[in-house]
Write a structure and sequence with these properties.
The protein is an alpha+beta fold. It is 49% helix and 10% strand. The chain has four domains: 3-62, no CATH class; 68-202, DNA polymerase, domain 1; 212-363, Intergrase catalytic core (hpI Integrase, Chain A); 370-396. The protein is elongated and about 100 Å long.
Length: 396
């Protein structure tokens, strides 16, 4: 432990300072100096510095002037990298580097030159408020770096920023401040100094599921240049698999003998391997692809990037502009529940680790609402029948 003296305050050109000297572990003499507003403030600064030095060490005191841009650079070099896997398990890096870069750009624009220790709980609250009032611009929709943050009303060329989007930025900021706390660059993570700033319950949940007629229109629109999308959509509708899980399937994952698809751990969001069964129509679609596949070790659907452009074409042709690819997963979950499959089993099919996640995927549609009303009507009818029978018995 570096040795230190008690320290002292002094005045130079009318300005008051707090200072103490210490010898580091290598035997080199060092000093820490801070400027106070007046003599009293300088004395208080000295007490704080000495207390922090004794409790947290020299490194904490030396880095108290570190700015957010330095933390961001540290995060880029050590954390912002592609995911690394060992034996099918993620041991480092991020699954989505591109989105993390976008979030980091936003944080740097707002906090770049701020000293880490001056960022307060209130500062983060204000950042959240600003971001919620800042519409998504076309440059962001194209995943370009954010050039500035400003308050303005939404225009025809912009969209309202969602709570979920801001929550992702705050989640990254919370992690970064946690790293800073572990490294001794800040005393305490400002996220821990008040009520939760990230509340997933406030996010607008998607409640869009496809009817049978809408599904038919969507699949019928997969013709010509978008015909390759049909088996992909059927896979999503009949298995509830995620977009990324589907596109990363290889033929070794398809077991035609037992009618099973293996979703490998490193391709899933939860890093847990699972198996899903094939429906008859999905097995037929996959068998057609298998027969024409030249490389049996290649990707099942032969697509390495996303299918956003072709999916936009298909949903436009089907006159379903509000449908998103992920809604197919919601549709699959809702249909399974409608057929009385227990929620716990639905969760296993979808690859959920928490029951609450499955609840969010099960949406009520018009048919569900009608079934609920019918169930209550049946209940009331049974009560009325019992009353009628009791009346008859009293009369008799």
């Amino acid at each position: 432990m570096p040795k230190t003296r008690s320290g002292y305050t002094f005045q130079v050109d009318g300005r008051w300072y707090a200072r103490f000297d210490y010898t580091d572990d290598s035997g080199k003499r060092r000093n820490v100096k801070r400027r106070g507003e007046n003599r009293t403030h300088a004395k208080e600064l000295l007490k704080q510095l000495l207390r922090e030095f004794e409790e947290r060490g020299a490194r904490s005191v030396e880095n108290d002037r570190m700015i957010f841009a330095e933390l961001a650079e540290h995060y880029r070099e050590n954390y912002l990298k592609e995911a690394e896997y060992v034996d099918g398990r993620k041991v480092g890096g991020l699954r989505s580097v591109s989105s993390a870069k976008t979030f980091l750009n936003s944080l740097c624009e707002h906090f770049s030159n701020r000293r880490l220790r001056t960022i307060t709980y209130g500062d983060i609250q204000r950042f959240r408020s600003i971001r919620l009032k800042t519409p998504i611009k076309r440059s962001e929709q194209q995943k370009k770096p954010i050039k500035r943050i400003e308050l303005q009303a939404p225009t025809k060329r912009s969209e309202q920023r969602s709570i979920a989007s801001v929550n992702r930025e705050l989640t990254l900021l919370r992690r970064m401040m946690g790293i800073a706390e572990r490294e001794g660059w800040i005393i305490k993570n400002p996220f821990d100094m008040g009520e939760p700033l990230i509340n997933p319950a406030d996010e607008k949940k998607r409640e869009r599921i496809l009817s049978r007629e809408e599904e038919m229109r969507l699949l019928e629109a997969c013709t010509g240049r978008t015909s390759h999308l049909r088996p992909i959509l059927i896979c999503a509708l009949d298995t509830g698999m995620r977009h990324g899980e589907i596109l990363k399937l290889i033929w070794a994952d398809i077991d035609f003998t037992n009618g099973l698809i293996t979703v490998r751990a490193f391709n899933t969001k939860t890093m847990r391997e699972r198996q899903v069964a094939m429906t008859i129509r999905l097995e037929q679609e996959l068998w057609k692809l298998y027969q024409t596949a030249q490389n049996k070790n290649a990707l099942v659907f032969g697509i390495k990037d996303n299918v956003k452009r072709s999916f936009n074409t298909v949903r436009s042709t089907a006159k379903l502009p509000d449908v998103r690819f992920h809604d197919l997963r919601h549709t699959a979950a809702t249909r399974l529940v409608a057929k009385h499959l227990p929620l716990s089993e639905v969760g296993r099919v979808l690859g959920h680790t928490q029951p609450t996640t499955t609840y969010r995927y099960v949406n009520s549609n018009v048919e569900t609402a009608k079934r609920a009303a019918l169930a209550l009507d049946t209940f009331q009818a049974e009560i009325q029948t019992e009353k009628t029978e009791e009346t008859k018995e009293r009369i008799n």
